[in-house]
Design a protein that fits this description.
The protein is α/β, with parallel strands linked by helices. It folds into four domains: about 170 residues, GAF domain (Beta-Lactamase); about 160 residues, P-loop containing nucleotide triphosphate hydrolases (Rossmann fold, 3-Layer(aba) Sandwich), CATH 3.40.50.300; about 70 residues, Helicase, Ruva Protein, domain 3 (Orthogonal Bundle); about 50 residues, Homeodomain-like (Arc Repressor Mutant, subunit A, Orthogonal Bundle), CATH 1.10.10.60. Helix content is about 45%, strand content about 15%. The protein has a six-stranded antiparallel sheet with strand order 3-2-1-6-5-4, sandwiched between helices. Helix 1 packs antiparallel against helix 2 and helix 1 packs parallel to helix 5. The chain is elongated, with a radius of gyration of 42 Å.
Length: about 525
């Protein structure tokens, strides 16, 4: 039997086909939008008809016809194959193309679509090639051609393989883009949730005029690169303000690194801030990055900046001025791009006068100072804060607090709050845990907040009676200390011996009773 002649294809038509397909693949990120136009283009330029693309469903292990040319919807539904089933299933399992000169002579050809009933099977050739992403077969591309005894199907296999490769590259790129987009969306959602819950100025609870001034300053300084010094008493929420500045700045997607300068011993603070080289000191078994390196591109928050030692202040001043430093024990100068936000509850001006804080460092840090008012200066915010903490700490409590009683509100608003918002949160958390009836009562609050009426400790008697009671107690305690010696007791109390004698007689005190007193 004479060997078949290779099919000579019109090169212009082939190049035109490949160019059209490349343009179609660029039009949409969704392959379902372009597969049908690709199959139409194949039929138009190559003579191959009834093209189809099947994709592997990984959950069912079944090959499903994703798109086709010349097939009805019902025919597409019938075109489903298991791995190894029919020509299509064998191509996916083997990963190699398959060309059938006459479908009538190929037992693997199932004609499951019933789309060739009006044609003689002796007149149909079938070509099927795998679609691979890297080394994994994800589906097939196939087409019919009228049988021609004089020509082979090698050119058809080659052309379809090129097109399948183009589709597979597009699939791979789309998968990578989709994966990247999903990661970005997940990260964006996570950051939005984090910001909404913790770091937005709206979550720094308070509507007082003084807090509104703080919000305005945050909004003003956040978009810039300016160094900020946050001042205020312990517990007012300085770290929340620092977070708000960072997460509303152009650096919001970069690291936010916190350093509590007061919590670290002087021997470790420089290593913590600037890192160290291996062998720089005992225990330095490996090179370690400091917080400034970790914060590169982002923001570093130096809390309790007033506790830094003079030597560390000098190194920090250099970083602020030159944006460079060396690790402890190292010689290499490292450059760093970082925004500095500092905070302190100390009176730095007094510390400067006492030579405990460098004046030049103070000026470098205090480019844009923000003062956070203590809670006692914004008492209109106390109830809103209390409600917020009730909700926060009530989530994991079996008893859900529905309201705060009026006496408890009065106690909260009349207290001076030396521990500020932090102390208030601790008090509310305690009250939530102690409540048994869905109400936070006054007696659930700590003793420091209790009034005389609520604790039933109202002072009884007149002022004169109280003074005399205290005076008698002081005289007795002093006589005990001096073993009943009236002269020494008078001297200790700052009164004359005559007045001492009068007071002893007045209160019926016998000094002899305390000569052998046990102190």
């Amino acid at each position: 039997m004479a060997a078949r002649k290779p099919k000579v294809r019109n090169e212009v038509a082939e190049l035109t086909l490949l160019f059209e397909i490349s343009q179609l693949l660029d039009q949409s990120m969704d392959l379902r939008d372009v597969v049908n136009p690709i199959l139409k283009s194949i039929a138009k330029h190559s003579g191959m008809v009834r093209g189809s693309v099947t994709l592997l469903d990984r959950e069912t292990g079944e090959l499903v016809t994703e798109a086709s040319q010349g097939l009805s919807d019902s025919q597409k539904q019938r075109a489903r194959y298991q791995l190894g089933e029919g020509v299509t299933g064998n191509v996916v399992r083997s990963g190699r193309p398959m060309a059938v000169p006459k479908v009538s002579e190929e037992p693997l050809f199932l004609n499951r679509t019933k789309s060739r009933e009006n044609l003689s099977k002796d007149e149909i050739s079938f070509i099927c090639v795998p679609i691979k992403v890297e080394n994994e077969v994800i589906g097939t591309m196939s087409a019919d051609r009228l049988f021609d005894e004089e020509t082979g199907l090698d050119e058809d296999v080659r052309l379809l393989s090129i097109i399948a490769s183009m589709i597979s590259q597009a699939v791979r790129l789309r998968q990578e883009v989709q994966k990247h987009q999903q990661q970005l969306m997940a990260e964006n959602d996570r950051l939005k949730e984090e910001l909404r819950d913790r770091f937005r100025p709206s979550n720094i609870i308070g509507r007082s005029n003084k807090m509104q001034n703080v919000y305005d300053m945050i909004a003003q300084v956040a978009p810039s690169e300016t160094t900020v010094l946050i001042r205020g008493e312990s517990g007012v929420g300085k770290e929340l303000v620092a977070h708000s500045i960072h997460y509303n700045s152009p650096r919001s997607s970069r690291p936010f690194v916190r350093v509590n300068c007061g919590a670290l011993p002087e021997t470790l603070i420089e290593s913590e801030l600037f890192g160290h080289e291996k062998g720089a000191f005992t225990g330095a078994t490996a090179q370690r990055k400091g917080r400034f390196e970790m914060a590169n591109g982002g923001t570093i928050f130096l809390d309790e900046i007033g506790d830094l030692s003079p030597h560390t202040q000098i190194r920090l001043l250099r970083v602020l001025q030159e944006r460079e430093f060396e690790r402890v024990g190292g010689n290499e100068t490292l450059k760093v791009d970082v925004r500095v936000i500092a905070a302190t509850n100390r009176d730095l001006e007094s510390a400067i006068e006492e030579n405990k804080f460098r004046q030049d460092l103070f000026y470098r840090l205090s480019v844009f100072p923000i003062h956070i008012p203590p809670l006692r200066e914004r008492k209109t915010d106390i109830l809103e804060l209390a409600n917020y903490f009730v909700e926060k700490h009530g989530k994991n409590n079996p008893v859900k607090i529905k309201r705060i009683s009026t006496p408890a509100i009065d106690m909260l608003t009349s207290y001076h709050w030396p521990g500020n918002v932090r102390e208030l949160e601790n008090c509310i958390e305690r009250g939530v845990l102690m409540s048994q009836d869905d109400v936070l009562h006054g007696h659930h609050l700590p003793p420091t907040l209790q009034t005389a009426e609520s604790s039933n400790t109202v002072v009884r008697g007149t002022l004169q009676e109280t003074v005399e009671r205290v005076e008698k107690e002081m005289i007795i305690e002093t006589l005990k200390n001096v073993r009943g010696n009236k002269s020494k007791a008078a001297k200790a109390l700052g009164i004359t011996e005559r007045i001492m004698g009068l007071r002893v007689d007045k209160y019926g005190i016998n000094p002899k009773d305390y000569r052998n007193a046990t102190i």
